[in-house]
Each structure stands twice: as C-alpha cells, then as structure tokens.
Design a protein that fits this description.
Elements: H1 5-12, E1 14-17, E2 23-26, E3 29-32, H2 38-46, E4 57-60, H3 77-93, E5 97-98, H4 108-115, E6 123-126, E7 140-143, H5 146-155, E8 157-160, E9 164-171, H6 180-191, E10 199-204, H7 206-210, H8 213-221, E11 230-233, H9 237-243, H10 252-264, E12 275-280, E13 287-289, E14 297-299, H11 315-325, E15 340-343, H12 345-348, H13 351-364, E16 373-376, H14 381-389, H15 392-398, E17 402-403, E18 424-427, E19 443-446, H16 449-458, H17 464-467
Parallel strand pairs: 3-4, 3-6, 4-5, 6-7, 9-10, 9-12, 10-11, 15-16, 15-18, 16-17, 18-19
Antiparallel strand pairs: 1-2, 2-8, 13-14
Helix pairs in contact: 2-5, 6-8
This protein binds iron/sulfur cluster (SF4).
C-alpha cells in the first residue's frame, strides 16, 4: 500500500515513540523571529542549556518592525526591546540572523523560501501559525508555541501526535481574475474553519499543479485558517526550478542527489488518504470575507448569507459577525466602502503578488480613491528591491499608494501600522478576527491582492474582473 508524503516524512523523522503515545520528531529547519523567541531563549538560559543545532536555526525580524522609520532605537520601546533581545540571543548562540540593518530582513515565511532554506522533504517549525506556508515545497511545516520553540532550540525535536491526511483536489481551470487567495478562501468556506482539525491537507489537482510556487505558498499559508495543522503540495519540476541557484539550495554538485530525494518523498500514486475532497476550480469567484473568521466569505457577486443558511452550531458566530461588521444578512458585499487597503503579509507579500497589482494599476490608469489610505508592504527586502528595480515603487506612489519597508505591518498591527476606530480595511492578509489590525473595533475584509487594489482604486469592494477588464 502506498504512502503519502506526510507518512513518509513523519516516519523518516521519528526519533522516538514516547510513553504518552506521541512522537518525537527531528526538525530540519527552525525559523525564529522576535516575538515568540525571547522567552524561549530566557527559559533556555535559566536551565543552562545551549542551542543544539544553531546551523539549523535562522532568525529574522518581522512582526514588530516599523515599515516607515527604522532608526534605532525604534520609537516603540517594546519593539526596541524585542529586537535588541533577538540580536543578543542570536549573537550569543551563533544563530544566523537576517537583519534589517543589513537589508536582508523579511517576513519569516517569505524569507525562508526566498533564500532556499525551505526545501522538499524537510520538517520545519517556527513560532508562528502560518508556518504551514513552507508546505508548498513538499515539506511538513508546523507553527509552534513559545515553550516548543525552547524545546526545539534545546533538542531540535518536537513532540507531536500523528495526523490524518485529507487530499484536496482542485480540478478544472481558474477563471481570469481568480487567484490562489480565492482558492484558499473558497476551501475554508467549503470545509469550515474547524474542518481541518486533526488533519494535514495535501493540495493537488490540475489547478494546484499549474500554480507557481508563490501561488502554492498562498494556498498552504491559509491551511491553518481551515483548522489543519499543516498543508503541503507534492514537490515537482516547478518546485525544483524555483529552488535552483538560491543561496541555501543544494549546490550544482549535490543537485541531482537532492532532486532524487525530493522525488522519493512525493505521495505514492496508490497512497491512502483519510479523506478526499474534490472542488471545481472553475466554480470559484473572487472571494471576500464579510465576517470575523476566514470561513465567513462570499463570492464578490454574492451577498452576506442569511442566518438560516448556517447550521445551528454556527449561528451564534454569524450573528456576532453581523453585529461586529455592521452587515445585514442579504446585503451585497460589493459596494462596501473601505477606508484602508493593505497589500502585503506572508500570504500575499511576494513579488508576483505586487507584479500583478502593478500590471492592473498600469492597465486601469486609475488612482487611489479620495479618502482611502493604501499601503504596499513588500514581504522582504529582496521583494522590495525587485519592485524598485522594475520601477514599480514609483508606479505605486504615483497611483497614491504608500510604498513601505518590509514587515508584517497591518496584518496584525504589532508595529505602528494600525487601523483606527471602526475603519474598514480591504486586506490581502489571512486573518479577519476582531481587532486583528490594531483597532479593537476595526473591520477586516480578506481578499486577493487584485481585489484589494480594485477596492483601493474604487473606494469600495469592487469586482476586480470588471474594474480591470479581466477576461
Ligand atoms: S504576515 Fe501576519 S500571519 Fe504572516 S507572519 Fe506576519 S503576522 Fe503572522
């Protein structure tokens, strides 16, 4: 009987079966950032422990980093303290650090793949929920808590339960103006925000096969929002081409051997899955969230669902969402006025995301609508520089967008980029929880970068297919 990629990697990385019934798994790569690591390092120090594999750990600063003024000390004393703590910890333990000062920094889930650190067949962990992003390369990647960060620093292993695998096949062809983000939101809408609990998602099918690595990362990034512990795509020629020549990718001399290993970890054709879901890609519209979970979404031509359309156990959350978002059931989502537009984050802060937005802005020749604040926040210094090299920084600013330094920014507003009051934000990020963007009453509408751009230019939620004439 064939095995899935999940089973192969789980078995080959198991160090021990523990008396608790859990497994101790070896982690090939541990990514660190400034928010979840300080306590882990302190706890390590209190126990007199050192980092077992500093060469398998890499750090960057992303969550608290300002995207405007980065002069040290940072204006926010807490941010300065966190950044200073990370700098001290990585220096003391000999961990490579991609620093803002050397213009190497970026969002941890943009940087790892970009540097070629993320590779197929790896077990990867990071103290951040959206570590599932790295599964796009055919790795198993898990978000972990601070105490687990400490455990991995000390032992390079993680204790986990074995998960079931659900194969999600997206067949057919996406229609013009429909992007990987729409697929991710659609999957969560269909399967629910709790639907993936106890599962790892394996994404497959013609749509996923055709996706670029950036698109696969967008899809895997949001697995966690559907309740899955991880999500992955089997590695293929697209994966290998992306990795070839990247800084930490295998050298030319080791390349063939690496590809041989990567091919061997793919799910077997006769692999057995706990569940298989098939979704028609051609049925997907540009998606927009209307509520307070990423599952509360609707196609852009649709309306906020009626209460009776929800199963009884979801009605309380739906009513809470109507109240918080000030939406009425049956109200069209299109036309919702926006105050802020944010394009960035580890979901949609990669070069291809901004290239597409630049293409659409250029095509429309429009400017950001009066009264809308629109931010372009690249996912990394490399992405930012590539945009500048293409002249897109000027294109964005001429169109009325602010062009910022890289970081998590308004995805979760741990830096100065925050909503105020009841502002509504069209966002290319991944979470629309209450207060997520820095204002306790701020409202977030998740959508693709193209849809955020359309909202920024029109001043309200607008079908990007119509605004940009995408056919
Ligand atoms: S961009 Fe948002 S989701 Fe991604 S790592 Fe930063 S805060 Fe987390």
């Amino acid at each position: 009987m064939g095995q899935t990629l999940y089973d192969k990697l789980f078995d080959s990385h198991t160090v021990a079966l523990l008396p608790s019934g859990q497994y101790q798994l070896f982690m090939g790569l541990h990514l660190l950032h400034e928010v979840t690591s300080p306590q882990a390092f302190s706890s390590l120090d209190e126990r007199g422990l050192s980092v077992t594999y500093p060469e398998r750990s890499f750090a960057t600063a992303d969550h608290i980093i300002p995207t405007h003024n980065r002069l040290r000390p940072l204006q926010d004393p807490l941010a300065e303290e966190m950044l200073g703590a990370l700098e001290g910890n990585v220096t003391r333990h000999g961990i490579p650090f991609f620093s803002p000062a050397r213009r190497e920094q970026g969002i941890v889930h943009v940087l790892g793949p970009e540097l070629g650190l993320t590779q197929p067949g790896m077990m990867i962990c990071c103290g951040d929920s959206h570590t599932s992003t790295h599964g796009a390369f055919g790795s198993l990647a898990f978000g972990i808590g601070t105490s687990q960060v400490r455990d991995v620093l000390a032992t390079q292993t993680l204790t986990m339960n074995r998960l079931k695998v659900r194969k999600i096949e997206i067949f057919g062809k996406l229609r013009p103006g429909v992007y990987a983000k729409d697929v991710a939101l659609y999957v969560i809408n269909r399967l629910g925000v709790q639907g993936g609990v106890g599962f790892t998602y394996e994404y497959a099918g013609e749509v996923v096969d055709r996706f670029s690595m950036d698109e696969r990362m967008t899809l895997c990034n949001m697995s966690i929002e559907g309740g899955a512990r991880a999500g992955y795509v089997n590695p293929d020629a697209t994966t290998y081409e992306y990795l070839r020549g990247r800084r930490f990718a295998p050298s030319a001399a080791n390349w063939d051997r690496a590809v041989q290993y990567w091919e061997s970890v793919r799910s077997d054709a006769d692999a057995v899955y706990a569940d298989v879901v098939r979704l028609d890609g051609s049925a997907i519209e540009p998606m927009v969230t209307w509520g307070i979970t990423p599952g509360q979404s609707v196609g852009v031509s649709g309306a906020v669902p009626e209460l009776t359309s929800f199963p009884p156990n979801e009605r309380e959350t739906a009513e809470e969402a109507y109240r918080y978002m000030s939406f009425e059931p049956g109200q069209a989502i299109s036309g919702t006025k926006v105050d802020v537009a944010f394009i960035g984050s580890c979901t949609n802060g990669r070069l291809s995301d901004f290239e597409e937005v630049a293409r659409l802005i250029q095509k429309s020749q429009r400017k950001v609508a009066p009264g809308v604040r629109a931010l372009i926040v690249p996912g990394s210094q490399d992405v930012r520089q590539a945009l500048i090299d293409r002249g897109y920084d000027k294109l964005f600013t001429d169109a009325g967008f602010e062009f910022r330094e890289p970081g998590c920014s308004m995805c979760l507003a741990m830096n100065p980029d925050k909503l105020t009051g009841r502002q509504v934000c069209a966002s290319s990020s991944n979470r629309n929880f209450k207060g997520r963007q820095g204002s306790p009453s701020g409202r977030t509408l998740l959508m693709s970068p193209a849809m955020v751009a359309a909202a920024a230019l029109a001043g309200s939620v607008t079908d990007a297919r119509q605004l940009f004439d995408l056919r």
